[in-house]
Amino acid sequence: MDQATFDKIAIREVIENWAIWRDTGDFDRLATCFHDDGTMTATWFEGSKDLFVERAKASFARGNASAHVLGAISIDLAGNRAIAQTRATIASRDTIDGVLYDIACMGRMYDFFEKRQGRWAIAERRLTYEKDRADPVIPGTSVVFDETLLASFPSGYQFLAYAQTKRGLDVSRTLPGLRGPQVEALYAEGKAWLAGSS
Length: 198
Fold this sequence. Notes:
The protein is an alpha+beta fold. It has helices at about 5-25, 25-30, 50-60, 145-150, 160-165, 180-195, and strands spanning about 35-40, 45-50, 65-80, 80-95, 100-115, 120-135.
């Protein structure tokens, strides 16, 4: 195999490890998926990888759980840099106003990778949120959603954001979806990263 193939395999391993270690509470190893100065942005968080791991660990200890189900991966390489896009479904189980719901949100992990001292790791992880749904776990149960609160979030992650808000999290309302200026700006940042921008 050529070097590009080896690099893509190494990047893919980081992406897959992140999902398993994040969802199973293996937080010491989760931290190794990032470079030391790595950052993370999601609906409920924006900041350093250290703070992300700390808050994810605290959430896991409280019994909150979510699963990151991965799909197709596309990797663009440029020397010691890469942009990796990974199809992902975020699946969580939440109690909303006393009713148990399964939330499924589809989107992509958009990762700024860099190879430093021979090791590929995430310099920055951003996500796009493209569509989601909420299904009651117990048939016949339901809750009346607050339409005003629901409509205050982008359509790509409004049910996920609603559940997270009910859980007490401060959720961003400006994250990218499949189309629009936010995702176009993200793509532009990705191209600049591959071209050598900091």
